[in-house]
């Protein structure tokens, strides 16, 4: 049975017997889908079934033509075992489209996967998730009869530096950068470490003051010094008093359209 501790995490799985294509799609997903907590890549239908039995997989991107059991056969086995997550088939053969949708596939991508087309697919997946959440929230309208508590944004952070604990005012933070198991809190006075994830911080910070510009980066808007565009058209942010250039993902470039 899937681990119940992972139910609220967004696990995405890529299933393809070709290592380079598997790696390429995994990398694209990590760049374009910021809400992903973990991207798992496997090379066969059997491995996919084993992983789906251990983790709550949000979405599976599955190749169709694979040695052993095919993607269609794997999808059938997944549905029969009770898997209710999203299925997206990725293949070089468009004649399998009908069979794919018979197994409740949400989308069907042709190789080589186009970034724009993949982003459209991700938006569909997000919209489906939001619709589900909205339904659950609507079912809880009776809670309006209970006393409501006003949400307070995070004001102070306890962060570590060496063996010491520093109490940092959130308004002094220039940016948060996810690095390995920790998140670095960057201020003009120095850098500190906390164990909160970027996802947790987004829930606690004021969205009018802090923007997520990349999967692993949150910046304080008032600390922006300049936004530059490189020769490839990508945006980069320079912050006041911080000697670091921070990249803006394509998914978040719209934040700076009016600037």
TrEMBL record:
Record key words, sorted: Phosphoprotein, Two-component regulatory system
PROSITE patterns: HTH_LYTTR (PS50930), RESPONSE_REGULATORY (PS50110)
Residues covered by the Response regulatory domain: 11-126
Gene Ontology molecular function: DNA binding; phosphorelay response regulator activity
Modified residues (4-aspartylphosphate): 63
TM segment ranges: none
InterPro entries recorded: CheY-like_superfamily, LytR-like, LytTR_DNA-bd_dom, Sig_transdc_resp-reg_receiver
The HTH LytTR-type domain, residue ranges: 157-259
Annotated protein name in UniProt: LytTR family two component transcriptional regulator
Lineage of origin: Bacteria, Pseudomonadati, Pseudomonadota, Gammaproteobacteria, Oceanospirillales
